[in-house]
Amino acid sequence: PGKRSDQAYGATRMDMTQKNELYIRDLGYFRLQDFKSIQDKEGYYLSRLKLPTKIYRKEFETVVFKTKPAQLRPVYIQIHLEDIMNQLQPGQVYELHDVYVGSKDKLPTRIVVYRCTEEQKQKRLHDRAIREKKKGITYTERTKLLQGITVYMTNIPTEWV
User: Fold this and answer.
1) Alpha-carbon span 32 to 108, nearest angstrom
2) Which DSSP string do the residues of the chain spell out, in sequence order?
3) pTM here?
4) 3-state percent breakdown (helix, strand, coil) of the chain, nearest 5
5) Which of 9, 53, 73, 150 has a Cα-to-Cα distance from 143 of 20 to 30 A?
6) Domain map of the chain by residue range?
7) DSSP classification of residue 88
8) DSSP class of 3
């Protein structure tokens, strides 16, 4: 106890993943490899998204060659959470379907964005200011701005939740 991080502990549980089980993770356990493992074993996950994690939508572009037929190539377009947040009213929820997370290995997922009320946002900013002072760190303006939303990722089918 107390010698391993939550993230390392969570990784040790992956061998026990079973089909149709739901794994609820929080930020301390956030590892995209673990979510991929759960998905590969036909399990389901629900987790808050760590805000530095990038979100993409997949599009296709045509690549033309001189010596062979044209081909479609996937292109990943980054989705900016700030843009979504600015479109939402406090208390409103927005879903992104068929998106991908991760800069390197893109994991297909569904994103749910909740716009916090002003009171919730102010409490988060207050708590973050205390952490900044206590730990001697400075959060980026983007991090502070995104305190106005809570972002979840899941592979649970929309018909279920």
Assistant:
1) 10
2) --SS-HHHHHHHGGGG--TT-EEEE-GGG--HHHHHHHHHTT-EEEEEPPTTS-EEEEEEEEE--SSS--EEEEEEEEEPHHHHHHHPPTT-EEEEEEEEE-SSSPEEEEEEEEEPPHHHHHHHHHHHHHHHHHHT----HHHHHGGGEEEEEE-S-TTT-
3) 0.83
4) 35, 30, 35
5) 9
6) 19-52+81-154
7) P
8) S
Q: For 139, list phi and psi in degrees, rounded to 5.
A: -80, 150
**H or E stretch covering 94:** strand 93-101
Nearest to 115 by CA among 91, 98, 139, 80: 91
Give the list of residues 6+ apart from residue 43 with CB closer than 8 angstroms, or none.
17, 18, 19, 20, 21, 22, 23
Q: Which residue has the tokens 């102010």?
A: 122
Please report which confidence band the pLDDT of residue 2 belongs to, taking 50, 70 and 90 as the band edges. low
Q: Please choose, from the candidates 154, 60, 53, 63, the residue with its C-alpha nearest in 3D space to the C-alpha of residue 109.
A: 154
Residue 125's Cβ-count burial label (10 Å; 0-12, 13-18, 19+) is middle
Q: Which residue has the tokens 């609820």?
A: 24
**11-63 confidence digits (pLDDT tens):** 556 567 889 999 998 876 788 999 999 999 999 999 999 888 999 999 999 99
